[in-house]
């Protein structure tokens, strides 16, 4: 697909070390996201991809292909393949993560919670609430299925306090049921976690985010993920309170652990040392 990458109109992300950073697509197997800065460029890029795929005797599935315009205001765009107009959507799922046209994460977070709710109610009466099943077995399901479902993709989350509360409520609903209590019993969440030897959800998410930050720091400078992350976006900031960013989230986590950004960046170069800093001495490479 080298011809596609060479001929498409790439999306300008920003500048990194005085050099422009561009992105044209994200591809995993046959799941491809094509980026463009305008409706015209997107139509051109899609036509190039369609032409190249046709040469390889492959075909784009029009029914499954969607278009989305990301921005503060909804914009209707007209994109087609061989005369067939593509459906414009407000959100879509890519590799297990829900992306919406606002560029925010609330839709993905809400979908995680809803998936866990469905799982919880599916196994509540037949599994979690069964006294003959040990707490160890119930916690094994929590750690291997329930928690990964709830936190999938959390490495890059930027959470509001409201969303943190919703996620924690979902966490504690399962844990309370494991020990057979309800909110009416007025038992502190910390006591329940201690009894079950379960790490606090927000701490687990923080560890995953710091692990990913360290991984990105160790990436080669030519890696697209690192370039896009470090790119400085041009333009004026909108009025009002500045939005929370992923870098701010990481900065707070580092400060809480007694490290500056510069100190952590230096430490992250050593994978083993960084792993122990994030997860503790029990961390094993």
TrEMBL record:
Top-level taxon of the source organism: Eukaryota
Q: Could you provide one GO biological process annotation from this protein's UniProt record?
A: DNA biosynthetic process
- Which PANTHER family does the entry link to? REVERSE TRANSCRIPTASE DOMAIN-CONTAINING PROTEIN, THAP-TYPE DOMAIN-CONTAINING PROTEIN
What this protein is called in its record is Reverse transcriptase domain-containing protein
Q: Where is the Reverse transcriptase domain?
A: 26-99
């Amino acid at each position: 697909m080298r011809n596609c990458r060479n001929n498409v109109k790439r999306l300008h992300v920003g500048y990194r070390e005085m050099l422009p950073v561009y992105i044209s697509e994200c591809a995993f197997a046959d799941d491809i996201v094509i980026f463009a800065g305008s409706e015209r460029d997107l139509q051109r890029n899609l036509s190039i991809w369609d032409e190249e795929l046709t040469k390889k005797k492959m075909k784009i599935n029009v029914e499954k292909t969607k278009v989305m315009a990301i921005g503060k205001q909804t914009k209707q765009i007209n994109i087609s393949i061989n005369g067939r107009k593509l459906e414009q959507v407000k959100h879509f799922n890519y590799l297990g993560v829900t992306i919406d046209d606002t560029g925010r994460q609330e839709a993905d977070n809400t979908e995680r919670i809803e998936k866990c709710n469905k799982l919880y109610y599916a196994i509540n009466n037949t599994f979690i609430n069964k006294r003959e099943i040990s707490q160890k077995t119930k916690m094994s399901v929590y750690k291997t299925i329930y928690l990964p479902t709830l936190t999938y993709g959390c490495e890059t989350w930027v959470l509001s306090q409201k969303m943190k509360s919703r996620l924690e409520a979902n966490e504690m609903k399962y844990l309370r049921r494991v020990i057979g209590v309800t909110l009416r019993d007025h038992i502190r969440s910390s006591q329940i976690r201690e009894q079950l030897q379960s790490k606090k959800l927000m701490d687990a998410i923080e560890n995953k985010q710091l692990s990913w930050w360290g991984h990105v720091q160790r990436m080669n400078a030519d890696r697209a993920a690192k370039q896009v992350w470090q790119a400085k976006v041009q333009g004026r900031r909108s009025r009002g309170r500045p939005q929370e960013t992923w870098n701010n989230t990481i900065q707070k986590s580092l400060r809480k652990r007694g490290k500056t950004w510069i100190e952590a960046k230096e430490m992250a170069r050593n994978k083993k040392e960084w792993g122990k800093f994030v997860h503790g001495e029990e961390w094993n490479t």
